[in-house]
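[AMINO ACID CHAIN]
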Amino acid sequence: MRSEVERFLPRAVARLVEELIRLPGIGPKSASRLAYYLLRAPEEEARALAEAILEMRQRIHYCSRCFNMAEVDPCPVCADENRDRSRICVIEQPLDIVAVERTGRYSGLYHVLHGAISPVEGIGPEDLRIRELLARVRLQPVEEVILATNPNLEGDATAMYLAQQLIPMGVRVTRLAYGLPMGGDLEYADEITLGRALEGRREM
């Protein structure tokens, strides 16, 4: 049986709407509006969007050290010799690096987990880049690991698990202070709040 979208829209439009709905935060109404916008837009605008998506897929990969998005390996942060290599800030998603960098108060390295532990969603430690983080701490002279996972249940569970793994290795483990709102995402935090949370980080 055809979906509700396919029943009332031309096939090509329905296909685009169905694909747009797969994007996070995009529901059927938003997907329909975007599809009709692209339908009315000049062909070169729609083509530029399609080409940008394909170029991103072809050129972007993950840094082999920190797993941030990058066009080169290692990424610019890992390759920067001026960064403080004794500190690693652990975050959930690549966009969180942008949020932390906006504060201008952190000069160390990063490690991107690409998610958080969530039993409800079937995500365990083995599904994240935790093994690689532990290997980095063993191999390089790291003095402090800052756990900057999101201040929600999944982020807290991930931070607690990481602390249990890292503290026996003799490294200082800190967590961002709760200047951040509970249930929020780093990506949406303002620079002042996030900066204060960095400065007020505490031992795990």
